[in-house]
Amino acid sequence: MALAQVSSNKCSGGYQKVFEHDSTELKCKMKVAVYLPPKAENEKCPVFYWLSGLTCTEQNFITKAGSQQAASEHGIIIVAPDTSPRGCNIEGEDESWDFGTGAGFYVNATQEPWKTNYCMYTYVTEELPRLINANFPTDPEKMSISGHSMGGHGALICALKNPGKYKAVSAFAPICNPIQCAWGQKAFSGYLGEDKKTWEAYDATVLAASYSGPQLDILIDQGRDDQFLSASQLLPDNLIAACSEKKIPVVFRLQPGYDHSYFFIYSFITDHIKHHAKFLNA
Amino acid sequence: MDLYEVFTGSRLDVITEEVLSGDEEHQEEVKEDEVNRDLPTKEAFVVVSEKAETRTFQRFSTDTNDSLRFEAYVPSSDEEGTPSPDSSVDGHDDVFEEHKKSENKVNNIRTKLEEKVVEMENFAGHLEEIFLTVEDNFGRQEQHLEQHYNDVLQTLSQRYDERAAALGEEKKRRLEALYTQLLGCGRTLDASKDLIETAQELYRTEDKRLFLQAVMPTMKRIEEFAKEKPDLTLVTTLEFDRPLANLSDVKTMMDSINIVPAPSAPVINPQVSNSATPTSLRVCWSLFSDDSVEYYELYYRPVLEDTPAADSTKGPDVSNVKVKETHCSVGDLLPNAQYELWVTATNTTGISPASEKAVYMTVPSPPFIRQRECSSCPEAALIRWESRNTNPVDSYTVELIETGTDGQSGVTESIVAVPTCESLIQLQSGRQYLIYVRAVNIGGPSERSEAFTVSTTGTIFHLQQDTAHPCLSISEDGFSMFYGDEELPLSAMTFDDNTFARCVAVLGDLIPVRGRHYWEVEVEEDTEYRIGVAYEDTQRNSYLGGTNTSWCMRHVLTPSRHKYEFLHSGWSPDIRITVNPVRIGLSLNYERGILSFFNVDLEQHLHTFYCSFLHYVHPCFALDNPGALTVRNGVAAPDDLDQGFPNSEYHNTARLT
Question: What is annotated as the active site (chain A) (predicted)?
Fold first, then answer.
């Protein structure tokens, strides 16, 4: 699998690079941003996977979140893929900002015309790690996952569906209970069809209620002034209730004054990377 | 003045205990030897480095004669300040090294010389005192002699006066008697003369009739007068009565001049450091005169605060001991007590005047370490104790020994001159130590106190019982607290300035060291608690977390769910926790100004306060509703504590709602 470097910028002593490759899962060219810390020059490093939210590409996180400093200090490689397949020329892919392009929802679509390309779940959990491990000095046992909004939803479901695969998980303003919110319902019905049973496999709240596996330690930050929170798109209370019930350790922080933007991510990304580092560097 | 001459010229001897055996014949010879032995040699004076015990002045040290020997400091050849010739041949670089070496050597020599100067000064001081004493004693001898002879002279003079007076009296008496007799004779003579003239006149009378008239009485008178026998014996004898002068007492006085006088007062030494025990004192004294002494008597009595020491009529009884040597150990005394001692010397003639009174002190009793008031952390321990002596002591000495894992003890380290009953000791983490305390006064150090074990794993503190709210009861071991169900009436509760009055809380006594501290709290799932830290002076009528002087995690149980707050100044961030912690770890880091909370069982970080602590803080604990809480101390902080908590500045909770 060839990785073609698109850009490289020195940052915080390491390198923020962007690569492009032909994805076998998604059947298109995909870009992926990779931050290599200084430690990577000499040693194997753990990998932190970041999943961005609706309308984002691989650029938003690396230019707005300010994660490189903490990644450099903790010696962690950060991989930030795109949020959906691009340039597939599927009809309707650009119609809405919350479905199709830039809104992959990290599922494996079963419905036409999406099922050929929109396999973001497999891409993120299988293809991408293989690609990264083959091309970078990584410790394949040390992976963790995080994300924002739709990406938060993606991080949570990847961790819950793959017990033990991810050593740490956290999220910023995640969509906790997609089957109960407008966004989720729209996306799932489009990608997965009308059978709500198939939706549950990609719902963090549902997955938490039936989780069994190694102990997780989930950190979630949520801006209190987040418009989507008040619009009932995010529904963190449901996830908290399920985790309380199932005794899944979660620390959920409601941050006053913060909204849904990357300014919010920027403010707390260091905390999250430290949280991940505790498990990745253990 | 040449010291040597002083020594030989006046034949000054220090009477050592070996010498003074009361045997006077021997003394002269032995003294001779002593003198010769003690004299400094004629060549250079050499300073002897004194042992530690004899350093403080022993002007009359009877045990050693170190103070009377003086050696000059001669730098040995290996301490030469100049660099050896061969090394200077090498290049430029060696010069600096040599320079440094010589600097060091010069410094060494200088230090040694300074020490020698001090010793020399001490020695001069000794000599001065001895000189004064000799002067004193000889002065006394002179006085005594003068007195003696004066007494004799006076007595003789007195006798002379008496005798002379008696003699004069006698003379007067006799002369008077004779004179009276003379007068008597004169009168008789006159009377006779008178009669004769009368008779003659009568004989010449022509008138025969008158003659016959007067002749018969006149003849009668003459007859009577003739009958009187004049007493011609001398009234007084002609012999001269010479009484014997009774000069026997003068004789005894003259004799006593030749008798050995009673000794001069001995000089009692000041107390030697470290010579006492809690129940005994070792007293030494000396005699700086030629007097012979048969034995000494040492008197002593305790010095009590309320009786003036000078008043010997009241006060405690005086005990005494008779000894032949110039030292004595007095036993059966009280610890850390002052005793007044004085000594007299006695020989066949009599008893010397008493020496000056010296005050000695016995060694104190060992202190008692207050275990419940001691605390520790990985880098230090705070030990508190009490004196257990009625009188104050001079200082304390703290001893610590590191005990290895096999129970072997290491080197004892001592911290001396501790002025108060507490000490903050720096230690190394992850070790075990035994700590002892001794009380020290002029008499020396006491025995060791009971050992106190310190383990520098984790932080150890005790609860400050006197801050506890009356409704809070503390367990026997001092680490658990209970808020009972029973409603205590307000009248049954005793509050004071230090107890919490509203919040059912108590403070811990954290060691005041600005390092990292870690402790754990165990609760039940439904215990409603507040745990965290607070400044010592946090308001006792406030709730923990409600003011800016305390930071705490609070658990509230509502009918629907568990609620967790992280309070400071009454404000808390909105945080949900899904698994209720029953074992909470608290990590305090003064340097970074953070207080973090963890669910220990899950190793889950819960929250971190960012605060720069202006003063030392204490762990605080409260129960909002009846329940129980246990503190776990001496637990090592988990290794990954540093990475676990976030370091964001945005978590600052110093905001008022």
Answer: 149, 226, 260
- The Cα–Cα gap between A262 and B388 comes to 68
Tokens of A50: 């970041």
Return the pLDDT at B1: 43
Do residue B574 and residue A256 have CB atoms under 8 angstroms apart? yes
What is the count of residue pairs from A and B with beta carbons less than 8 Å apart? 74
> What pLDDT was estimated at residue B642?
55
Which residues 529-588 of B are in CB contact (within 8 Å) with A? 561, 573-579
Q: Dihedral through CA B465, CA B466, CA B471, CA B474, nearest 10?
A: 10
pLDDT at residue B123, rounded to an integer: 85
Q: Which helix (H) or strand (E) holds B111?
A: helix B92-203
Closest among A150, A151, A51, A55 to A102, alpha carbons compared: A55
Query: Does a cis peptide bond (omega within 30 degrees of 0) precede residue B353?
Result: no
The alpha carbon dihedral of B646, B648, B650, B655 has a sign of positive
Question: Checking DSSP bridges between strand A45-51 and strand A77-81, what pairing results, if any?
Answer: parallel
pLDDT of amino acid A197: 93
The complex scores an ipTM of 0.89
Residue of A nearest to B577 (CA): A251
Residue type, B83: P
At A189-236, the pLDDT tens digits run 999 999 999 999 999 999 999 999 999 999 999 999 999 999 999 999
| Catalytic residue status for A149 | yes
Q: What is the pTM of this model?
A: 0.68
Helix (H) or strand (E) holding B473: strand B472-474
Report the 10 Å Cβ neighbour count for A60: 18
pLDDT at residue B69 in the model:
52
Nearest-angstrom CA–CA distance, A213 and A216: 8
Torsion (CA) A91, A93, A96, A99 in degrees, nearest 10: 120
**Cα Rg, chain B, nearest whole Å:** 50
CB atoms within 10 A of CB B48: 16
Q: Are B468 and B483 in contact (CB under 8 A)?
A: no
Q: Catalytic residue among A148, A260, A275, A276, which?
A: A260
For residue B441, with 0-12 CB atoms within 10 Å meaning exposed, 13-18 middle and 19 or more buried, which class applies? buried
Q: Name chain A contacts of B597, Cβ cutoff 8 Å.
A: none
Does any CB of chain A come closer than 8 Å to the CB of residue B618?
no
A282 touches chain B (CB under 8 A): yes
Quickly list DSSP for A119-149.
Answer: BHHHIIIIIHHHHHHHHS-EEEEEEEEEEET
Number of alpha carbons in the 13 Å side-chain half-sphere of residue A249: 17
Distance CA B194, CA B192 (A): 5
pLDDT of residue B196: 84
Q: Can A259 be counted among the known catalytic residues?
A: no
Confidence (pLDDT) at B575: 95
Nearest in space to B401 (alpha carbons), one of B438, B435, B448, B428: B435
Measure the CA–CA gap between A39 and A54, rounded to whole angstroms: 32
**pLDDT < 70 positions in chain A:** 1
Q: Do B604 and A224 touch (CB under 8 A)?
A: no
Low pLDDT (below 70) residues in chain B = 1-94, 230-232, 235-238, 240-241, 243, 245, 257-260, 306-315, 405, 407-408, 640-657
Tally of CB atoms within 10 A around A16:
21
**How much is the pLDDT for B315?**
60
Closest CB to A249 among B599, B646, B648: B599
